[in-house]
Give the backbone structure.
Amino acid sequence: MATDRPAGVDFFDRQERARGATLKLTALFLLSVATIVAVIDVLVYLVVPATTASSRLGAVALATVVTVLIIGGGTLSKMASLRGGGAALALSMGAIPIDPTTADPLLRRYVHVVEEMSIASGVPMPALFVLPNDAGINAFAAGYSPADAVITVTVGALQTLNRDELQGVIGHEFSHILNGDMRINIRMIGVLGGLLVLGLVGLRILQFSGGGRGKDKAIGPILVFGIAALVLGFLGQFLAGLVKAAVSRQREWLADAASIQFTRQTQGLSGALKKIAGLPEGSVLVDARSESQINHMLFGDGRRSFTQLWASHPPLDERIRALDPAFTKAQAGRLRQEYSAARPNGLAEDVALGLAEAPSRPAPAPAPLNPNPGGIGEFPLPGNRSVAIPGSIAVEPAAVSAAVGTFTLADLERAAALSLQIDPVLRELAGGSATAIPLVLATLIEPAGPLHDRQMQLLSERIAPSVLAEVARLLPEVAGLTAQLRLPLVGIALPALAARPRDQIEAVQAALQALVLADSRYTLFEYCLTRLASAYLGDRLAPHRVGAPGRASIAHYRDSALTVLAIIASAGNADPALAQRAFDAGVERLGMPVSPYAPPADFVAALDASWPGLDALSPSDKRTLVEALVAASAHDGVLHVNEAQLLRTACALLHCPIPMFLA
């Protein structure tokens, strides 16, 4: 597979850097706490009357405990408020969720742009939100992992950006999702929350002490503690804000570069930045208090900074010049005049401005389909689901590992072409809160025959009659979908499903398990669909538990790696001799000694037992494993659809999203 992805820092390097940044942030936080505690202890020691040494030491010990409890409690409280992940943060900002089935043309365009990038990149469809009261152009991505990620845009961005510009902004935010920036951003909010609480406690102590006049002498140490807490708390937040801003500016440059890589054109992103420069609202958010928490997460600076030292984003004119070298500050003034003249009627003109599309590229044609899927070994595709299977492509392990966590315009066009093959009615049903569950269930039900009857009977024992009736109604619509279309369709439906109450989600998971075991066997498609859904829903139900990049060595999980390689080799080759060669190619890529090829009899249990350990691998070892999986899947230089599905599922379970190589 030829690739136009730039060489250099890749997904795995960024994961290593993200882990390093987390460690540095933790160390900086602990150092800040230790410094604050030490300063407060010294002041308390100097102020407490020197009656006895024990009284002074007791006061110092009390000050230490109180200070640590205040900062730690504030941090834990803030983190607890964000346990719900990206959605909790978006809602705390006053954002409103978007129904993917909306008929509003601006919102539909927003949904389609994000949907195409989601399919292209291999990450789950983020939940979408809008800040309804902000006329400035801005956006942010939030969450602990891609599974609970949300993208939020201002209503001003929807109204004033054309499709290419909106795509550039969304590409910027997808970079933050793929690079692991979101987890660090949420942790920064928690750290600043603890320091802010210390300052607020100090302020309250001073308010309620009344300045200490006429009070008992014992009030002196308390006043000292209050003054120190006030000064050090807000000073610590100020200094931490400087660090946060410096880190954020660097990540914004990287996200701009990634957006250009994704869309392969600079006009969209530069156009959005120029509109920020030209419109009077710029990128400023209305609620300054909420903005101060997430300014480091925004597409554009959410406030008007008077000094670049405090700014969380690079200077706007520098960002534009990086995309359009001919741009000057003088042009920004002309842009303001032009946009002011173009908007005499306010928001009505904004909507027209936003829907005025740049010269459109022709819609990508659906990819030609090849009925020959290659060997599928013991994993047959069910019934007529193998009717229209796409062709195959040549791949190289290093090219695939370089493609992890990114995508290109070619991937985006493949995603758009595939999306065009899905019936618009089904796409709308996938995004509906009431129809997502029956649609996902329908993708696993045979259209007719004894197995169909058995599956419907099992469903009737687990879901409400109204849902069962909707499943039956959707079966004719879903029956014509090939496996290559069902997985993306389920991916579109998962966010709506995850928004349902926990008991309904658990009931759906149990129903999916019952459906695939109705004939006492798993097909490859069934395994991919159910495991992708389970992994996504598990991450969404407990987003704060999604781990940071691991540290384990692949040598420690050697048996798990060999098991997965053997299963993938078997899945792609009906001929045992070819499967052996595929397995050997994977083992060689791992750098391990030659091992016996022995695929397990129960591939489902073996795979399920292997994923947790392999997901804990260090980023560099994950790169090696991904390349070994590719070597085994495409040992003959070709990746067929069934191999691509299993490879993409494996990478998703390893939290290493890969683009859609097959259209």
